[in-house]
Every structure is written in structure tokens, then in C-alpha cells.
Amino acid sequence: MALLELSTEAGRATFRLGRGAVSGVVSVRVLVVTTVLAVATFGVFCLGVATGDYPISVTDVVPALFGVGDSGTLLVVNELRLPRVLVGLLVGAAFGISGAVFQTMTRNPLASPDMIGVIAGAQTAVVAGIVLGFGAGLGTQALGLLGALVAALAVYVLAWGRGATGYRIVLVGIGVAWMCTSATDYLIAKALPFEAQKAVGWLVGSLNERGWQHVRPIGLALAVLVPATLLLSRWLRTLQLGEAVATGLGTHVARAQLALLVTAVGLAAFGTAAAGPILFVALIAPQIAQRLAAVAAPPLLVSALTGSLIVLTGDLIARHVLPDDHLPVGVVTGVLGAPVLLWLLARANRTGSGG
Fold first, then answer.
1. 8 A C-beta contact, residue 142 and residue 135
2. pLDDT tens digits for 297-309?
């Protein structure tokens, strides 16, 4: 018997390995979209490395990534520019997957970490560490993770009522987000000028002055959390059908929600700690990915690539619009994401899909 059998029908490819012990169905459109997004993301990645005060051609960037080139080019690429672009790539992927998990789990296109208090909790914890003086001991990564987990746990507990439905999670999450935002504003108002300046600079969301010390934590986090999220995606597919149907299919809803919540919050928290709260990426990336792939829910890998492409493109725009003022990427994504949010609100109101 053939080791690999392939068949295509109605835009889907079915594969079977060996004697059928491993098999599956893959959407041809999703494969094409994933490939195109991967190529586009790599292109923007190389363009981001090539852009700067010291001009480097894109054709010299790829060899430099593998250690080939003159010493000046290798220094600029690997030490000065590569960490910044890598942080953008990884943070965009983290936000994209986190948003896709939240939106699928709650069955609500408005449910994302930056809308339901998760990122706001990370903000409050990091700003509190800066202003109150304990940030140097714990670091932004640990503070961001702790704040996001506390905020997510508060949302989950407060929204619980015979199951944490998407409608309650969104409503409670908005309330928790505003509470955290108010606490953050209070801390900034009470801070010393240099502390307030440092906190506000982080709150905008920026890739400026990012180095390898920012790459390693988010890289290790994604190496653990992305495979875990993909393994849990079978539960995500059943939760997408509703809690009653998921229970009927044998899914332990509360356990599945909690496990997915931990991975999604972890991705959002480490992304926020690495680059600050880059606005709207977790909200719009899954929605764009879902429409590109033409599927019922945001696909995780496509959402990750879309998030990375948005952040890297936004950073390029930021560097070209006001190159001398170091415009943060969060300003660009905020400007571009606000119209998408308004469109999602209007669409949810028309179709009744807001909760």
C-alpha cells in the first residue's frame, strides 16, 4: 500500500499516510493563502532590515542573515536591525494567534486581548512596576504576564454563569479594561516626570530600540505556546459550534476554555511585554485572515502571518512617514485599525453577531 495517498475534491485536499493511521483534510485555498502571506511577510521582513540611515540593498540582506557579507553589513543587519524586525515578526504572530483564539472561543469578532482587558491588565502591571519601583526586579516580561493573567482570570470569573459565554466575556472584559486603564492613568498622573515619560513611551507600542534581550523571551514563549495552542485547536473547533454542541461531542467545555485562555493570554502578555500594546493587531488580523481563507473561523497560522505582516508593514510606514521623530508602530496600527473596528461594530449590529 502507498505510503502517501492524496486526493482533491471541492477545493480540499485529503491525505492519508501508511494504512490510514494518520489522515486529514486540508483546504487548498488556506494553503495558497498561507503561502502567499508567508512570502509577503518575508519580503517585508527583508525590506525592514534593509531600511535605515545606512542603506543596504535587499539582495544583500538575505546573505547577511546567514552570515555572508562584509563586516559592516553584518554588523548593521545582525546587531542593529535584525532584532527590531524579529520582535515585530514575533509580536505580530503572538497577537494574531491570541486574537484568533479569543474570537473563535467566544464566537465574537470583537473579542480580542486589547478589547476585553487582557492587554490593559498587562499595561497596568508594567506601569505599576515602573512607577512604584519594582519593575527592575521582575522585568516587563514577568510583569506583563502577571498583569494579563490576573485580568483574564478576573474576566473569566466575573463572566462565569453556567459557562462563560462570548457575550458575557466581551461585556465583562470591556469593564475590566476600563478599570485597568483608569488605574494606569492614575499611576502615570502620580509618577515622576521621567517615570511618566518612560511609561507613556511603552504604552504607545513601539519597536524602537529593540534588541536581542527583547527577542529571546518572546521567541521562547512562542516556541512553547504556539505548539500548545495548535494542539488545543481541536477543542477550539468544537467550541466554535457552541457550548451545547461541544458538550455533546465530548468536550469538557470549562477545561477547554481555561486551557485555551491560558495560551491566548500568555501570547498576548509576552507580545505586550516585548513591544508594548500595539493597538488593534489582535482584533483585525484574525478577521482579515478569516476572510482571506474564506473559512468559518479565523485560522491560527494564517492569523499569525497576517499579524506579523501588519506589524512589519506598520513599522515600515512609521519609519517613512516621520523618519526623524521615531514614530511608534502603535500609532500607525491605531490609525489603520480604528476604521476596521467601526466596520466590525456596524456589521455586528446589522447581523446580530455581536454576542
1. no
2. 899 999 999 999 9
